[in-house]
Write a structure and sequence with these properties.
The chain has 110 residues and is mainly alpha-helical. The chain has one helix and no strands. The radius of gyration is 44 Å and the shape is rod-shaped. The termini are far apart. This is Vesicle membrane receptor protein (V-SNARE).
């Protein structure tokens, strides 16, 4: 039995073994670069996710403040609308009194 490891693609000639070793070495270097790039991209992705989480938290806070402000404005507008309606109703009542009372008094005198 031989001390060499099993090679599914045996070398064709003596010079071919060094070329094969260089090819394996090059493939290993490419794999390492790919893994380094993947690690770098994963790290950058984590940083981007942290940024997105921070922005999301800020937007949630701003949405709460907007909701409170919108409710305050809605209540103010409701009161303003009620005041306007009351003024119109009082104006109509006064107008009716001004028209009806003199006609009733005039009708009793004649």
């Amino acid at each position: 039995m031989s001390d060499r490891l099993y090679d599914p693609h045996p070398a064709q000639g003596a010079g071919n073994s060094s070329t094969r070793a260089e090819a394996v070495d090059e493939e290993l270097k490419r794999a390492m670069r790919t893994m380094e790039d993947n690690i770098k991209l994963t790290s950058e992705r984590g940083t981007r996710l942290d940024d997105i989480q921070t922005k999301t938290d800020n937007l949630a806070g701003q949405a709460g403040q907007f909701r409170m402000g919108a409710n305050r404005v809605r209540k103010q507008m409701w009161w303003k609308d009620m005041k306007m309606r009351m003024c119109i109703i009082i104006g109509i009542i006064v107008l009716l009194i001004v028209i009806i009372v003199p006609s009733v008094i005039y009708g009793k005198n004649h």
